[in-house]
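Sample entry (237 residues):
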Amino acid sequence: MTPEKRKLMVVGAAITAALTLPGCAPAGYNSSATDGSGGVAPAANAVDTTPEPTGEPTGEPTGEPTGEPTADPTSTADKAGKLSGDDVTSELTGTTVKRMGKVVVNQEGFVLYRFDGDKNKPEAATNCEGDCAKVWPPALTDGKPELKGVDAKLVGTVTRKDGSKQITIDKWPVYTYIGDKKAGQWKGQNVGGKWFVIEPTGKKNLTCLPPVSKPVAPPSSDDKGDAAGGAGSDYSY
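Predicted structure, serialized as tokens:
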């Protein structure tokens, strides 16, 4: 191979690599690493698990979560709309995390998301039910969550089919993701091309946009901690 051809191949490979990192290139990004769901996993999801403090929002999550997100929060609401303490989102905190920037987290530090399949106009509407809600547990409330760095005027609720109340930010219903195993992770970003980290204003955070990936499969009925099969699913949510 001539030196000229070798040089062209190297330049071409560099250009290709740059084009495969839409939106961001987190430190330590490994293009050969996959998240087991058919998409490339941003390395930041694995190493940046603690949100950073910021001058804008007040407060940040502290410590590690005490457990995994509830597999099926929709089953915890009874006819009177009562929720167990573990299923209530009692706090919303606007903060920042590395390589993503502005986010909203719950009292355990889990990042919240919004879904393009939902609606916020003219009123909030949630369309994530059944298995979708097992993978993306809705942020439920039985009152008013404590707010830090989130404008109270933007926070509301939408009534789900089971009668439970789901928190909204700028009328967008918000969720956690069971693929996030630690506080501050954002593995749900751009899953299915429909799920995005939500900012305190209710807007999508597109600071870092990894390649579209599949959601984890819903957990089996006897295993709430891990997704069934441990692989990416073919579900549309």
